[in-house]
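Session log. Operator J.P. requested a structure for one protein chain; no other inputs attached. Running the standard single-chain path with token output.
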Amino acid sequence: MKRIQKGDDVVIIAGKSKGHRGKVLRVTDNGVVVEGGNLIKKHVKPNPQKPENKGGIVTLEAPVHVSNVAHYNPNTKKADKVGFKFIESNGESKKVRYFKSDNEIIDRV
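Structure written below.
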């Protein structure tokens, strides 16, 4: 289980988009794509086989390294560290993520 997963609410803590808050759209090996964060301009050639691709300059979200992203804690309204612990439910232990500042569980059990 990774600390940051698709759909998490995160804050970018370093780089040109520092302070931006958004949802994680995609997780790669060591990077995450944050909705509306780390925007770049990309020149795209037109593709006649795809009518929706007319070409031109397109604005996209680029991946941000995992070390430059932190979870957003809605209780403290700040970026927060994440830890792992095991919780017993129905006789079996399950690994869950939690905020280290207030021990609030992120994952639903």
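Operator note: The mean pLDDT is 93.
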